[in-house]
């Protein structure tokens, strides 16, 4: 029964990640309620959901070929931040992380709720963006563009740090940053987001495996569930609708956060 619940949670997380993002808000609390210590649950969740993220990144490979080459430099801070966040998780005392978990879930849920508003505000063609001005050939705008990119590198380092430490909602932060940088194609943005997520979660997952922080019975079952959910996400979404999926994630996120607060 425990393995079946783990598979089901990962399957739902895979479906949610393929449609809207935020699957960690389902799979991570499930591992806690199955009895895993919170830090082990976090590490196991990162490792088990990574194959699904890799599949999503592969699905956007055509869009990635259209991304401006210098934007790919954001892979470096994603890797650095991912390992930094994983190290911090390893050093965090278990009682401290236990107290943080409900608030991390609550904050990620609120961020998930704000995702559509952020996208409407930021994901649009920006004629006055730094990149648009740089393409016009202005040397001043080129310097501004370099400044924007430097800021994006620093921001992505922080996102990578958060992603390696906990991760739920990291994709939403990245999409918001891409909008500020002037990217307007949501598919292109999703491709870049998935590439950076695979980078930060991959290096964090390798560290967790090396430090023996992963519960493999759950991880293997959930990896299969996440891949199956990611592959079947599109057909499921067509049946239930993306808005229904979003309501489900928000309900589970708030419910789990409140239950963990009460359990404390």
What does this structure look like?
- This protein is an all-alpha fold and 264 residues long.
- It has one domain (2-263).
- The two termini are 26 Å apart.
- It is 82% helix and 0% strand.
Task: Furnish the topology, listing elements before pairings.
Blueprint: H1 2-19, H2 24-33, H3 38-59, H4 61-64, H5 75-91, H6 94-113, H7 115-122, H8 130-135, H9 139-165, H10 170-181, H11 186-210, H12 216-240, H13 242-263
Which labels suit this protein?
264 residues; globular; 82% helix; single chain; mainly alpha
Count of discrete alpha- or pi-helical segments spanning 4 or more residues:
13
What would you call the shape? Answer: globular
Q: How many domains is the backbone divided into? A: 1
Percentage of β-strand residues: under 5%
SSE order in H/E notation? HHHHHHHHHHHHH
Number of strands: 0
Structural class by sheet pairing and helices: mainly alpha
Major sheet description: none
Low-confidence stretches: 125-144
First-to-last CA distance: 26 Å
Mean pLDDT figure:
79
């Amino acid at each position: 029964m425990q393995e079946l619940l783990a598979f089901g949670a990962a399957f739902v997380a895979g479906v949610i990640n393929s449609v809207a993002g935020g699957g960690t808000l389902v799979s991570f609390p499930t591992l806690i309620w199955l009895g895993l210590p919170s830090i082990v649950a976090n590490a196991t969740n990162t490792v088990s959901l990574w194959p699904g993220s890799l599949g999503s990144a592969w699905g956007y490979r055509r869009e990635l070929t259209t991304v401006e080459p210098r934007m790919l430099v954001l892979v470096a801070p994603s890797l650095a931040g991912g390992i930094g966040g994983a190290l911090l998780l390893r050093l965090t005392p278990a009682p401290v992380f236990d107290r943080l978990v409900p608030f991390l879930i609550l904050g990620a849920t609120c961020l998930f709720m704000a995702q559509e508003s952020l996208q409407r505000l930021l994901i649009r063609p920006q004629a006055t963006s730094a990149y648009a001005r740089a393409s016009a050939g202005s040397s001043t705008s080129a310097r501004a563009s370099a400044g924007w990119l430097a800021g994006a590198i620093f921001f992505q380092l922080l996102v990578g740090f958060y992603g390696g430490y906990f991760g739920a909602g990291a994709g939403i932060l990245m999409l918001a940053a891409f909008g500020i940088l002037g990217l307007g194609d949501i598919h292109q943005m999703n491709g870049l987001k998935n590439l950076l997520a695979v980078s930060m979660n991959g290096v964090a997952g390798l560290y967790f495996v090396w430090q023996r922080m992963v519960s493999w019975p759950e991880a293997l079952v959930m990896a299969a569930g996440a891949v199956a959910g990611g592959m079947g996400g599109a057909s499921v979404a067509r049946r239930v609708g993306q808005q229904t999926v979003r309501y489900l994630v928000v309900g589970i996120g708030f419910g789990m956060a409140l239950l963990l607060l009460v359990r404390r």
